């Protein structure tokens, strides 16, 4: 079902796409865009990763048409410039821009007649969304999951694989964790991830050396600037829809879904050739890739059995989820179902 229509205006062409839930599109710098919500009874929600061109860290929008809370960039030009540019008398220009501002009085988001919305939607390209080698939109959740099992799944579009993301050096990911399950502790080798909670509630826990060092400086326990304490501070927070947080590169982190399924959206910065290193589970566990002798020297022989005890990978049940599953199995066995 078409959820929205996105139109991009560029110097040499116009492109318009009907987009669905889970679609990702790259908007080139300098493109003028407008969006149509094709569902009259549902709010359209989009997440943007902005990479400013002129002033790093500060993004400014430029509007050709004025409205209640946005000024048209035409308004700063003198009448002589506008008369010459549009070959139109000043009085007609003033009347036209004034009429446009009154029509756009609702703001940058406005209601429009159904006939106009349908026309914009029908004018969109019938060409199917792009694949990995094209520049068109693609659907993230229609890709094969990078990691998946009965407790969750992880979708990711990487710049090495999608042309749309290469020059941005960015990745886009969607993590879905089932109720009372978790994504095991892991860290990213070089990518910093910006995370937004889309649905559900949960918990994040992360190891952070910087906050530990700052805390020691405040307490007067660190004598020389830049001295490494070798200690970490646990950063933990409850998660709910709309929450946004940052996972810096190299920081071990775990994500937990509590009494609801948890869905989060992520943008990875400096994502080219990033590696996700898992610290628990059967597959891709870098601890288990250590030589046995090195692992025993680092952690002790008793930890050898502990590291190999987890039979799942990537997503695992929490203690509460495991207890619930065991209780359900006991009930089914008693009933003779299994």
TrEMBL record:
Taxonomic superkingdom: Eukaryota
Listed PANTHER family: OS03G0336100 PROTEIN-RELATED, VICILIN C72
Cited InterPro entries: Cupin_1, RmlC-like_jellyroll, RmlC_Cupin_sf, Seed_Storage-Functional
Annotated source species: Prunus dulcis (Almond)
Protein name, per record: Cupin family protein
Pfam families named among the record's database cross-references: Cupin_1
Residue intervals of the Cupin type-1 domain: 138-307
Family statement: Belongs to the 7S seed storage protein family.
Annotated stretches, region: Disordered: 121-144
């Amino acid at each position: 079902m078409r959820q929205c229509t996105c139109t991009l205006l560029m110097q040499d062409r116009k492109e318009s796409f009907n987009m669905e839930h889970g679609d990702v599109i790259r908007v080139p710098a300098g493109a003028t865009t407008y969006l149509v919500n094709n569902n009259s009874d549902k709010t359209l929600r989009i997440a943007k990763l902005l990479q400013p061109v002129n002033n790093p860290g500060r993004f400014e929008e430029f509007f050709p048409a004025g409205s209640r809370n946005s000024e048209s960039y035409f308004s700063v030009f003198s009448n002589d410039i506008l008369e010459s540019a549009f070959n139109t008398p000043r009085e007609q220009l003033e009347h036209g821009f004034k009429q446009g501002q009154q029509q756009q009085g609702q703001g940058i988001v406005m209601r429009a007649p159904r006939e106009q919305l349908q026309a914009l939607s029908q004018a969109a390209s019938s060409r199917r969304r792009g694949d990995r080698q094209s520049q068109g939109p693609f659907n993230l959740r229609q890709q094969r999951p990078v990691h998946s099992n009965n407790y969750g799944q992880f979708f990711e579009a990487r710049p090495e694989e999608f042309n749309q993301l290469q020059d941005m050096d960015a990745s886009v990911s969607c993590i879905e964790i089932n109720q009372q399950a978790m994504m095991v502790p892991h860290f990213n080798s070089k990518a910093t991830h910006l995370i937004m909670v889309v649905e559900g509630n949960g918990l994040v826990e992360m190891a952070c050396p910087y906050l530990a060092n700052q805390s020691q400086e405040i307490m007067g326990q660190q004598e020389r600037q830049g001295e490494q304490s070798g200690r970490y501070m646990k950063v933990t927070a409850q998660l709910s829809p709309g929450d946004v947080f940052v996972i810096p590169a190299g920081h071990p982190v775990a994500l937990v879904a509590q009494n609801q399924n948890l869905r989060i959206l992520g943008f990875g910065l400096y994502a080219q050739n990033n590696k996700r290193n898992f610290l628990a589970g059967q597959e891709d566990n870098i601890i288990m890739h250590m030589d046995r002798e090195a692992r025993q020297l680092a952690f002790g022989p008793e930890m050898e059995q502990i590291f190999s005890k987890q039979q799942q990978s990537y997503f695992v049940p929490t203690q509460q989820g495991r207890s619930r599953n065991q209780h359900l199995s006991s009930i089914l066995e008693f009933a003779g179902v299994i």
